[in-house]
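User: Continuing from earlier, I have the next pair ready.

Assistant: Great, send them over.

User: Here they are, in order.

Assistant: Folding the first of the pair now:
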Amino acid sequence: MNMAAIYEQLFRSSIHRYKQKNSTASQTLQELANRAEQTTIQGGIFAVRQKEDFASIGGVKGMILTSLESLLVHSESLSHFTPNPYVSYHYTNEARTHVTGFSNEHLLQINTFVVDIDTKKHSVEEILLTTMDDSIGMPTLIVESTRGYQLYFMLETPFYLSSENKAHGIHIAKRISQNIKRSLANIDADEYCNDFGFFRTPTKHNIRFCQLEHIYNIASLIDWSMRQDDNANRPLYTCGPKVNNLRVTEQPWFKAIIQTSNIRGHKGQFGRNNAIFTLALACYQDQWPFDKTYNLLDEWNSMLQTPLKDSEVRTICRSAYSGKYNGPQKAYIEQLLIEYVDASIELPQLATGGWYKHKKERKDRVRSHLDEWEADIIAFIETRTSVETPFIQMSQRELCQALGIAKSTLNKLLNQSTAIIRKVSGTGRSAITQFATTALFKIHLVKTFIANKRPSTFVQFVLPQLTHFVAPAVVALLTTFIDDATPLIERRRRSPHAVLVHSA
């Protein structure tokens, strides 16, 4: 495992290559690196040795690293670090044991988007399939954590945050991050995890998947994120403190939450801290004095079944009043209502409009719809196949007899279905026909790819697997797998590192 190549691609000259003092590299190498770095700005990253260091007395107990050389020296002893560098970073004491500066306004640039999956109920194969089917494509890294996985989507060129318009740049980056996490809801991506904070440090011991060619263009991600927002009818910015002439703190959702006492706190769960922060933001948007907000939320916290400490409530309120936030987010409000308020308040419902016609039950129709025949065939195939052997061998005539489907209907279905794969090898009487479902074959491909001992790109591995396929299912596979990976072929020439890590 070439950790130097991984870190070098991740940080892209945003930290120094060598230590500025006491480097073990030769003077010549140091001078060459320093000369190359004159055209870019270098920052620093934060790191901790264990998770408990986040809650140590005196703040976060950790270290500041400003070079790849230092990172490589310490990486094996680190539990978490910040994969996106900061332009401002400080120790808070003379002993240089506690650090500060890791807030969004101090970010230098965005090198990677990271998604946290706080469960291991999904396999690496399932994660890869979901990223390709539902999101932007396969991650660059999958790092295993104690309770789940973290997905690194590295950028080909960093997203630079100019000091003049940093708030706008961070807002765009956060929206991209949120849309990526939302697109991965089926594998339990933590939508409320900090977008640009500390994440599990990748090491040779915890990386479960690595393809350094899977990097992303920020302009393409912005376009993708805009389409996601358009589909969800969600603008980049919201404006105005009033809805239906009601101030934020007068709206039904605020009153409903403030009257709820069963909000809990648990890792991976939207709970007390989020509720207090959301309510405090609403008060701040309505220009309440800080003391009024704190007194209200301190009193509300005391009536919770499991309240927070008073000092924690004050800290959360101060964060809400820091001026960094415009107001509460609708997604957070809805999550709190869904999670805890139950039926005491209704979420807004969009009118569908118009009447619709109910279709008859299948037994009452002379001709079944093609989608129902497709479901029958999929069920028939999947009960006779597995991930290891995804194909069933039988002729179309045998399939018609087994299901009672007309040959003309089967031909029509196979010629338009993207969920069923037909593979024909040979000609005439010696021809062999096999069937599989697209979903099962995808899992088979990814699982075989991960187990493959010869390093290769995904596109190089998949192409030989698609011989003898009959359209249109092969077109769907090409769209899903190949089109997503084709731009990476040219990048391989510029980035020779391609590491394949076997699933643990």
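And the other member of the pair:
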Amino acid sequence: MTKINTLFFAILFFSISLIHAQDRTVEWDPELTEVWEPVPEVITPVVNGKLPSDAIILFDGENLDNWEMFSHDALRDPDAPDRTVRPAEWTVDHGAMTVVPGTGDIMTRQSFGDIQLHIEWRTPEKIVGEGQGRGNSGVFLQGLYEVQILDSYDNPTYPNGQAGSIYKQSIPLVNASLPPGEWQTYDIFYEAPVFRDDGSLVKPAFVTVIHNGVLIQHHVKIEGPIVFRGLPKYEKHPEKLPIRLQDHGDLVSFRNIWVRELR
């Protein structure tokens, strides 16, 4: 064996030994897999009905100060100084706010992007109508992307329009509806879409929905703003927009609405 070959095999053996030594170091030294930054912010969790310390209260049963009547101008530029603002015209009674049919949708005065949203809702105890005409409303994330509210307890309709659906897009995994007149909860985890400066889409919106403690939408891709007819299509909009609640002509009530901004 020549000196060159001997040197080559010596280097090769040394390299292999070093790699195995590094592997053994990573395997046996726990400190090499510990990550110390960033340190999560300390908040108080939900305990005995008390909200997280970083929650933004949107409705606590007292008034509609955090809400206004919906306008399409707000979806173009919610911070425009000349935008018309009309106080919310729904009613507040016994800790709940209720749709006043015919007045129109309402929306938050504050705008949001990625969020965790908690909202409680109730359809009328007295059953009137059927299908989409029974306890119909909706939660519009960024004013555009709807999680359907409907009395879906023993009330057949098209599944991508029942309670908990991403309206006309995604069918819930299960129907977790309670009987009409009972309070129900949505816990919604929403990732807003991202656009390039030229208006093209970088990343679509995604949503996870928990209905009455049951997972019904699991990180579902939203295909675009909700449309009743036709197919959805994304159009560039501001990074943060209001949350919107729908007046669909039914006496749907809401309470205990809060949100956490996801950074």
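Worth noting for the second one:
The longest strand covers residues 253-261. The chain has a mean pLDDT of 92.
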